[in-house]
Amino acid sequence: MTSLEHTGGPSLPQERRLVTAIPGPGSLERLDRKKAFVADGVGTTLPVFVVAAGGGVIVDVDGNSLIDLGSGIAVVSVGNAADSVVRRVQEQVAAFTHTCFMVTPYDGYVDVCEQLAELTPGEHAKKTALFNSGAEAVENAVKIARVATGRDAVAVFDHAYHGRTNLTMAMTAKNMPYKNGFGPFAGEVYRAPMSYPFRDGLSGADAAARAIDVLEKQVGSDNLACVVIEPIQGEGGFVVPAPGFLPALAAWCTANGVIFIADEIQSGFCRTGDWFASDDEGVVPDLVTTAKGIAGGLPLAGVTGRADLMDAVHVGGLGGTYGGNPIACAAALGAIEEMRGHDLPARAREIGAVMHSRLTALQEEYAVIGDLRGRGAMMAIELCEPGTTTPDAARAAAVAAYCHSQGVVVLTCGTWGNVFRFLPPLSISDALLHEAFDVVAEAFASTS
Ligand SMILES: *Cc1c(COP(=O)(O)O)cnc(C)c1O
């Protein structure tokens, strides 16, 4: 045991261990309490109640140890309770917990902004503002783009997910469960067709031309403040645009004075095998939004980008009570230390290679797997009726239920709910990863 004396983290036994049904009696009892006190609108994917987590496992109140292929939705990329995160958070929480950076500042905030300037794509002068959640970062990126351009319109894409606040609901594509009944939504948001090679068969250049045509004809580039896009879509189904799509879109934005905003909230911080997914094709966004993987589980988000754009906003125009909270900043500095120290972009590529080979074998065996896509430790399979693009969400639900019952945490996503997304913590061992995919294979066998 380290001097930290924490019970989770990388020192937890790295094993899948089932001692009860999933969920077990302890979790079922707690589910009754949840039912009594927590709003029903807050759902749970796999209702085991957690007492510890780390490396590649999650341990529940009944003593079951589950393999984690979800990372709390791409958040604990450095692993749960990672050593550097725990150490820095403990030091910070004992020193001071909050002052509000807008009242009396502190180093941690500036340190995180310096790291973001260095790590995000491009060598130009960059600045950052910090917030609490991904949605808040996206909203602020739009605010900055509007002030910097003097234009109103915002372009987003089919299958996009940008959050659950009013503006970001308008930007998110999928109605259920994110938007249904929650309108009216913010105006001046326009949706363009996404490059989705499995479904449209278009080259990146052709898909970009199609999207640009919609924007030119239906919005007009002179009215457009920004284009906001996930370089690999998250909730929308891990859709990877065809090569050339993102560079063409970014070039069109630059030529027309439109701010190109990469929403890297899910794809960023080593997940795809690069520091940011935009790096893969050398795309340099004007602004980048970050959250999720940035701080090892503490709530932190950022907008980072061209200094001239970031500084277009009047003093006092950006901020918030908790944005860049000192404990969250300490966690981010710890997480970045883990990413650099363990070369987690390289580890994401190794994990991606294992997942790709396991999933390729599965795809050869099961015709229901219509598409295999993704990069690094952000990989997905889309389930469709064999030989078609007709979604098979029922099979996806059955496979997920089997995995959950066998102690493997898997997540589905996609507009039709028929996509499995695999995004394990980058601290997972190869042995656990293989065991998890053994279970995924069993799940396909037992649900055919
Ligand atoms: C999760 C997510 C958001 C919203 O982040 P929250 O922290 O949940 O508000 C925005 N964009 C993308 C791409 C995301 O994956």
TrEMBL record:
<dbReference type="InterPro" id="IPR005814">
    <property type="entry name" value="Aminotrans_3"/>
</dbReference>
<protein>
    <recommendedName>
        <fullName>(S)-3-amino-2-methylpropionate transaminase</fullName>
        <ecNumber>2.6.1.19</ecNumber>
        <ecNumber>2.6.1.22</ecNumber>
    </recommendedName>
</protein>
<comment type="similarity">
    <text>Belongs to the class-III pyridoxal-phosphate-dependent aminotransferase family.</text>
</comment>
<dbReference type="InterPro" id="IPR015422">
    <property type="entry name" value="PyrdxlP-dep_Trfase_small"/>
</dbReference>
<dbReference type="InterPro" id="IPR015424">
    <property type="entry name" value="PyrdxlP-dep_Trfase"/>
</dbReference>
<dbReference type="InterPro" id="IPR015421">
    <property type="entry name" value="PyrdxlP-dep_Trfase_major"/>
</dbReference>
<keyword id="KW-0808">Transferase</keyword>
<dbReference type="GO" id="GO:0030170">
    <property type="term" value="F:pyridoxal phosphate binding"/>
</dbReference>
<dbReference type="GO" id="GO:0034386">
    <property type="term" value="F:4-aminobutyrate:2-oxoglutarate transaminase activity"/>
</dbReference>
<dbReference type="GO" id="GO:0042802">
    <property type="term" value="F:identical protein binding"/>
</dbReference>
<dbReference type="GO" id="GO:0009448">
    <property type="term" value="P:gamma-aminobutyric acid metabolic process"/>
</dbReference>
<comment type="pathway">
    <text>Amino-acid degradation; 4-aminobutanoate degradation.</text>
</comment>
<dbReference type="Pfam" id="PF00202">
    <property type="entry name" value="Aminotran_3"/>
</dbReference>
<keyword id="KW-0032">Aminotransferase</keyword>
<keyword id="KW-0663">Pyridoxal phosphate</keyword>
<dbReference type="GO" id="GO:0047298">
    <property type="term" value="F:(S)-3-amino-2-methylpropionate transaminase activity"/>
</dbReference>
<dbReference type="InterPro" id="IPR050103">
    <property type="entry name" value="Class-III_PLP-dep_AT"/>
</dbReference>
<dbReference type="InterPro" id="IPR049704">
    <property type="entry name" value="Aminotrans_3_PPA_site"/>
</dbReference>
<dbReference type="InterPro" id="IPR004632">
    <property type="entry name" value="4NH2But_aminotransferase_bac"/>
</dbReference>
